[in-house]
Amino acid sequence: LHQGGTGAYNAKTTLPAGTKAGTWHIGVMLDIYDQVGEDSEANNIKAVKFTVKTQPDLVALSVKTDKTTYKGGEWVNLTFAEKNIGPVATGNYQNGFYLSTDKKYDKGDKLVRSMSRKALGGGKQSSGGNKFYLSTSTKPGTWYLVFRADRANQGKETNEGNNVAMVKFKITTGPDLATTSITLGKSTFKLGQSLQ
Q1: Distance from C-alpha of 142 to C-alpha of 50, rounded to nearest angstrom
Q2: What percent of the chain has pLDDT over 70?
Q3: Rounded CA gap, 129 and 64, in Å?
Q4: How far is residue 92 from each of residues 57, 161, 165, measured CA to CA in Å?
């Protein structure tokens, strides 16, 4: 490098397996063997700070129902898939399934089923199924079944914003028999006579 000159170089390295989570620094040191006589050796080192995260990260991949239309009083069968895209295993956790009137999860949504789940290894995917009863008091219309992985936030994750998936379905009104009128053949009867 000529006097007064500058140079830019690219290099890459691999983070060693087992590196603990936290704040680290990586640096570069020029002329490590002191081959160049310099006015000052104190400015040959430069470092930059970075963060290592080794937390799990659950992703709700999908949720499906066995039908697209239901009536109040029916059972809804569901299936779901999830994945831990983080490098380390989760602890045990719970999944939740909610009824919502819109396309987002919020605290006003009704929990209809919860499921306990065992630890899921880093990079591993899991799926399962369950069912819940659709109350006859549920209003007809368009609804969403919301699947929320780790519903109680039992473990810290790299990203808590990817734990929700949902599917749309409809609730229709079922048959409702009602008596409209009753008529007798006459208004006066004797004891023992049949009412017709």
Answers
A1: 47
A2: 89
A3: 9
A4: 13, 19, 20
Q: How far apart are CA 53 and CA 195, in angstroms?
A: 83
Q: In what order do the strands lie in the sheet with 125-133?
A: 58-65, 75-84, 125-133
Q: Indicate the residue type of 52.
A: V
Distance CA 8, CA 71 (A): 68
> Could you count the other beta carbons within 10 Å of the beta carbon of residue 167?
17
Tokens of 65: 């129902």
Closest CA to 103 of 174, 168, 30, 160: 168
Q: Convert the pLDDT of each residue in 98-125 to its tens digit.
A: 999 999 999 999 999 999 999 999 999 9
- DSSP string of 47-109, one letter each residue: EEEEEE-----EEEEEEEES-SEEETT-EEEEEEEEEE-SSS---SEEEEEEEESSSS--TTS
Q: Is 98 within 8 Å of 37 (Cβ atoms)? A: no
Helix and strand tally (H, E) in the chain? 0, 10
